[in-house]
Design brief:
The protein is of the alpha/beta class. It contains 35 helices and twelve strands. The strands form two sheets. A seven-stranded parallel beta sheet has the order 3-2-1-4-5-6-7, with helices on one face. The protein has a five-stranded parallel beta sheet with strand order 10-9-8-11-12.
Length: 754
C-alpha cells in the first residue's frame, strides 16, 4: 500500500503531465486520510486556479495557509489567484509575503512582476522580474513578462530580445510568440509579425488573440479575404470576443460592406454596451450607409462613454461636418487635439476643419498652422546643416509625388494628365502611393508613372529613407492637411526641394516645405505674407483635370419645362449664413424658380429640414426646394441636365464641383473672398475667360445671377460653349498645362521662382 508521500508524488506527476482530474482525485484522497496535509490542499487550490475556479482556489489555498503560513509557494499561488480575481492590492500583499518568506522565490517574484505589469507599474515590474531572472536565469515566463514591461516603456530592442530568449528556452511558448508578433507588428515589420503569430497558432490553434492579431496584420498587407476568415475563425471559437467583432466591422468597412459592418459592431455593442470603441464603429458603419444623423448620434454617445477617446471626438467632428454643423465639428477636433497633442493627423484634421469657418482669414489660418509646425515639424527637422546640392539647371530631374489619393479621387483626376504629359527625357516621376486600392485610375496612373511605390506599410522613417535612396530632387506633397497625409516624412527633409500642391487650399504652416504651387488668382500678389511656403505661381491654372466618361451636355431644362432650376451639389458644411442669405435673395427675385440640393446625407429628414428651414425663414417656400442624396459620379454628372444654373457657396467655394458643373455646361457666379478656399471658383472662371461671372459684392452677386437666369438665350449659348472652353484651356488640356508646370519645376530647382 502506497504511503501518503508516495501518493503525493504520484499525484504531482499526473498534475505536471496535465492529467488534472486524476491528480485532483489523489489529492482529495490524501486530504480525507490526512485533513491537515497542507500540500494537498494547496495543490488542489492550484488545480482550481488552472481550471478557472478562482473562489474555490482561494478557499483551498487558504486552508493550506491556515495549517502553515511559512510556505512561500502557498502565498505565491494565493497572490496569483487574487490577481486573476482582480483583487490586486490583496494579491500584491500575498506575493510580497511569499518573497519575504523566500527572497529567492523566483515564481513569486515573477507573479509579482506580472501583477505590477497589470497595474502599469512597469519600472517596478522590471526591477522585480530582474530579480526573478537572476534567481532562475532560464525562466521563460519571467523573460516574457519583462519583455511586456520593456515594450510598454518603449524599449523595443530589449523587449524583442526577451521574447526571443523566452522562445529559445521554451519553443512551444505560445504567449511569447504572440507577444513577439505584437511588438514586431507595432514596429510595422508585418512579415515577421505574421511569422510569429502563425507560430503561436501552430502551438495553439484556438489562440483567439493570435488569430485576431494575425487578421489585423494580413489586412494591413491587403490580404482582405484571409483577414476576414481569421476573424470569423476566432469568433467561431469565442462568439463573445468583442475585439474580433469590432475588427471584423472595420475590415468590412474597408470593403464597403457597411450593412455587415454595422451588424458586427452592433453585436459587439450588445456584449459591451459601455465601450466607446463599439459606438465609434457604429458611427463609421452608419456613415458608410449615408445615415449621417445616426452616425453622429453614435459618435456623440462614444464621447459620453469615454470623454478621453480621441477617435470618438474625431468621428463626432467628421459626422458633424458632413451634416453641415461646422461649429460642432471644429469644437470636436479641438478636443481631439487636446487629448492627443502628439498626433499630427488629428492636428491636421483640426486645421482642415478651419477652412469651413466663415470667419477664417488668411492671417488666422497662418497662425493656427504655425502651431502645427512648432508641435509636429520642428522636433523632426534635421539638426545638421542640409547638404549642398549641385543645382545643375539643365540636368534631368527626379520628381516624387506623395499622396494617399492616387486612386479614384479628384487628386488622381488632376494628376493623370501631368504624369502622362511630363517630358520623360527631362523628368522621371516617382509616385509614393499611401493606399492599396486598385481601380482603373490606379492602373492608368501606374502606367504613366516612371516608378510606383506602395508605401502605406512603411513608417515615416522608412519612407523618408526610400525617397533618399531614390535620390529624389523635388518631392511634392499632394495632401496638405487633408487626412491621411505623410507630412512628417517631409519634416525629415528627404529631398533637397520640397513643395505642396493641390490637396489643401491653404498654408500648411510647415517649415519643411520650400514652395506652395498656386496661381495668381488663388494667391494674389501681396498675400505671400500669410504663407509659410514660398509661392510659385503657374502661368495659367493651378491644376488640369482629366475627365472620364462624361455624359453629353443637354439644353437648359427650363427651355422645355418652362421653370428655371438652380442647383448646388456642394457639401452642406459650406452652407453658411451668407450662402443662405444670397441664395434666398436670388430665389425671392425669381419666385417661379426652384432649387435642387444634392450631397451625402441630404436625404435624411433632420438635415433636409435644417437646410430648408434656413431658406424658409428667409422667405423661400419649402415646396420650391428638392433634396437629393448621394449617387455615383456618372449619375451625379447626368443630373446636371436638370439644372439651368449652379449656385456657389461662400466663403468656401466649389473646386472640383465647380469644374463638374461647368464641364456639364452649367454656369455659375461666384463671390471670392480672402482665403484660398474662397477663390477656387474665381480661379476657374478667370482661366476660362468668364470673369463676368465673378461678383465684387453680395449685391453684385445677386444681380449677376438674376440677370443671367433671365437670359435664356445666353444660357443656351453658354450650354454648348463652356465644355469646349475647358478642353481648350489649361484646366482641361494637359498639353497646354504641362509646359508651365515643367517651367515651375525648373524654377523650384533653381531656387528662383518667377
Amino acid at each position: 500500500m502506497a504511503t501518503i508521500a508516495e501518493a503525493l508524488q504520484t499525484a504531482i506527476s499526473h498534475h505536471v503531465a496535465g492529467r488534472l482530474a486524476v491528480a485532483e482525485q489523489i489529492y482529495r484522497q490524501i486530504t480525507e486520510q490526512l485533513p491537515q496535509h497542507p500540500d494537498a490542499w494547496h495543490l488542489l487550490g492550484v488545480i482550481a486556479q488552472q481550471v478557472g475556479q478562482l473562489p474555490a482556489s482561494l478557499e483551498l489555498i487558504d486552508r493550506a495557509i491556515a495549517i502553515t503560513d511559512r510556505q512561500a509557494a502557498y502565498h505565491s499561488n494565493r497572490g496569483e489567484t487574487l490577481r486573476q480575481m482582480g483583487r490586486l492590492a490583496d494579491a500584491e500583499q500575498a506575493l510580497r509575503r511569499a518573497i519575504e518568506l523566500d527572497p529567492v522565490a523566483a515564481d513569486a517574484l515573477n507573479n509579482l512582476g506580472l501583477l505590477l505589469n497589470n497595474q502599469s507599474r512597469f519600472p517596478a515590474a522590471i526591477e522585480v522580474l530582474n530579480r526573478a531572472i537572476t534567481c532562475r536565469p532560464q525562466f521563460p515566463e519571467a523573460l516574457n513578462n519583462r519583455g511586456l514591461a520593456l515594450r510598454a516603456l518603449g524599449k523595443s530592442d530589449a523587449a524583442l530580445a526577451d521574447f526571443r530568449r523566452a522562445i529559445e528556452l521554451r519553443p512551444n511558448f505560445a504567449d511569447a510568440h504572440h507577444n513577439l508578433g505584437t511588438e514586431l507588428h507595432r514596429l510595422r515589420r508585418l512579415d515577421e509579425a505574421g511569422v510569429a503569430y502563425r507560430a503561436a497558432l501552430a502551438i495553439n490553434p484556438n489562440y483567439v488573440d493570435a488569430l485576431n492579431a494575425l487578421a489585423l496584420a494580413v489586412h494591413e498587407q491587403a490580404q482582405f479575404a484571409e483577414a476576414e476568415a481569421l476573424l470569423r475563425r476566432a469568433l467561431a471559437i469565442r462568439p463573445t470576443y468583442t475585439d474580433a467583432l469590432a475588427n471584423l466591422g472595420l475590415i468590412l468597412i474597408g470593403q464597403r460592406r457597411f450593412t455587415e459592418s454595422r451588424d458586427a459592431f452592433a453585436a459587439a455593442q450588445q456584449l459591451e454596451p459601455l465601450r466607446s470603441k463599439h459606438y465609434v464603429g457604429l458611427a463609421l458603419a452608419h456613415s458608410g450607409l449615408d445615415e449621417l444623423v445616426t452616425a453622429r448620434d453614435y459618435a456623440r454617445r462614444a464621447t459620453e462613454l469615454d470623454p478621453r477617446d480621441t477617435d470618438a471626438w474625431q468621428q463626432l467632428g467628421n459626422m458633424s461636418l458632413g451634416l453641415g454643423d461646422v461649429p460642432t465639428a471644429i469644437a470636436a477636433f479641438r478636443q481631439a487635439v487636446e487629448l492627443s497633442p502628439k498626433s499630427h493627423q488629428v492636428h491636421s484634421s483640426y486645421l482642415f476643419m478651419q477652412l469651413y469657418d466663415p470667419a477664417m482669414t488668411p492671417a488666422r489660418l497662418h497662425e493656427l498652422a504655425a502651431e502645427y509646425d512648432r508641435r509636429h515639424v520642428q522636433p523632426l527637422l534635421p539638426r545638421e546643416p542640409r547638404p549642398v546640392v549641385q543645382r545643375d539647371a539643365n540636368r534631368p530631374l527626379r520628381i516624387g509625388f506623395v499622396s494617399s489619393d492616387l486612386r479614384e479621387h479628384p487628386v488622381a483626376y488632376f494628376m493623370t494628365g501631368v504624369l502622362e504629359q511630363l517630358d520623360r527625357t527631362q523628368f522621371t516621376t516617382y509616385c509614393y502611393s499611401d493606399h492599396r486600392r486598385n481601380d482603373p485610375w490606379v492602373a492608368r496612373l501606374q502606367r504613366a508613372a516612371g516608378v510606383w511605390h506602395v508605401v502605406d506599410q512603411r513608417s515615416d522613417d522608412e519612407l523618408a529613407q526610400l525617397i533618399r535612396d531614390d535620390q529624389i530632387d523635388i518631392l511634392i506633397d499632394l495632401a496638405g492637411h487633408t487626412v491621411p497625409n505623410r507630412l512628417p516624412v517631409f519634416a525629415r527633409r528627404p529631398a533637397p526641394v520640397q513643395a505642396t500642391w493641390m490637396g489643401y487650399a491653404g498654408t500648411t504652416g510647415s517649415s519643411a516645405f520650400d514652395f506652395l504651387i498656386a496661381d495668381r488668382w488663388l494667391v494674389p500678389a501681396g498675400d505671400e505674407v500669410h504663407y509659410s511656403e514660398r509661392i510659385i505661381r503657374l502661368p495659367e491654372s493651378n491644376v488640369c483635370m482629366t475627365f472620364s466618361d462624361l455624359p453629353p451636355v443637354t439644353p437648359p431644362p427650363s427651355l422645355q419645362s418652362g421653370r428655371f432650376t438652380f442647383g448646388s451639389f456642394l457639401n452642406p458644411a459650406k452652407l453658411t449664413p451668407l450662402t443662405y442669405e444670397l441664395w434666398s435673395c436670388v430665389l425671392n427675385k425669381l419666385p417661379d424658380a426652384r432649387l435642387i440640393l444634392k450631397f451625402r446625407g441630404l436625404h435624411e429628414p433632420q438635415v433636409a429640414e435644417r437646410i430648408c428651414g434656413a431658406l424658409v425663414e428667409r422667405g423661400v417656400a419649402r415646396e420650391r426646394i428638392e433634396m437629393r442624396g448621394h449617387t455615383p459620379l456618372h449619375a451625379m454628372l447626368a443630373e446636371y441636365g436638370e439644372i439651368d444654373m449652379a449656385l456657389d457657396t461662400f466663403p468656401y467655394t466649389g473646386g472640383t464641383t465647380t469644374m463638374y458643373a461647368l464641364v456639364m455646361g452649367v454656369p455659375l457666379v461666384t463671390l471670392p473672398g480672402q482665403t484660398m478656399v474662397s477663390r477656387q471658383s474665381l480661379a476657374v472662371l478667370e482661366w476660362l475667360g468668364l470673369n463676368e461671372w465673378v461678383a465684387t459684392s453680395a449685391e453684385d452677386y445677386v444681380n449677376k445671377v438674376v440677370t443671367l437666369a433671365r437670359d435664356p438665350g445666353r444660357l443656351a449659348e453658354l450650354r454648348g460653349d463652356i465644355r469646349q472652353r475647358i478642353f481648350k484651356s489649361s484646366l482641361g488640356d494637359p498639353q497646354r498645362f504641362i509646359g508651365g508646370f515643367q517651367d515651375a519645376l525648373r524654377q523650384m530647382w533653381s531656387g528662383r521662382p518667377s
